[in-house]
Predict the structure.
Amino acid sequence: MVADQTSKKPWRVEMRELVARAAELSVENAVELEAFVRAAYSAYLDARPGLREWLEEQELRAELDEARLLGRMAEA
C-alpha cells in the first residue's frame, strides 16, 4: 500500500495511526497477539521485495556455520 501523497501528516504519525487502527481491528475481532504480529511482519516483508529471501539466506548460512562448528558438516 502506498501512502497518500497528499497527506500533510508526517509519515511517522500516519504509520502510528495505521498500526493503531490495525490493532483495534484485531482486538475487535479477537485476533491473538501472535497472529497480529505475524501479519504485520509478513506485510512488512511483502513491502520490501527481496528482504524475505535475504533473511532466509542469512538463516541458512547461520545454520550451516553452526553445523560446521559442531563437526556435522565438512568444510569445502
